[in-house]
Amino acid sequence: MKQLFLCSYFAGVKELFRQYASEKQLGKQILFIPTAGNVEEYRGYIDEALQTFADLGFQVEILDISACDRETAQAKIFQSKLLYISGGNTFYLLQELKKKQLLSLIKEQIADGMVYVGESAGAIITAKDIDYNKLMDDKAVAKELNDTEALSEVDFYVLPHLGEEPFVESAQATLDTYSAQLNLLSLHNHQAVLVEGEEVKVLEEE
């Protein structure tokens, strides 16, 4: 059964994840992919996510898929029971996943019981296609991305950071532009979406 924990801002849902990890008995090993942040000026959310996992007692292995070969990336993901993909530029992230041929492997691993944790860009790529996110992220940094088809693990499209700086305008523009044609699921920075099989629940940090 597929199990996904998707959020807008991981440090903002720390207690939700603590509870989730405890209920699911997830163990304490996590594979952490920060690659989406490589092309961003601000990367503080990656440090905050690392700190959040450390605070919760997790042992984190960092894997930058842009900096390793395909075999290494595939082997690490294949061995992982718990995978986290950070925020950053969604198009660059998808480009790097495709270059290393990781999308189908991640899908297989999710089907096989691996728990997937996605923050912002990491949550967006669980949709069928990420083209709708071009109002929030610059597509131009992903010059080798030929198509925007993504993991297709969920039938909705995560819209992170609604009402949150510095994304107030771009998130609202995305909502205004695509809400009539796509099943958008908008999140502010203290909400998470839990997907278990076909069941979808939105929770909020108190």
Automatic annotation (TrEMBL):
Q: Per the similarity annotation, which family is this?
A: Belongs to the peptidase S51 family.
InterPro entries on file: Class_I_gatase-like, Peptidase_S51
The EC number on file is: 3.4.21.-
The record's GO molecular-function terms, alphabetically, read: serine-type peptidase activity
User: Short name of one Pfam family for this protein?
Assistant: Peptidase_S51
> What name goes with this protein?
Peptidase E
Signal peptide span: none
Q: Which domain of life is it from?
A: Bacteria
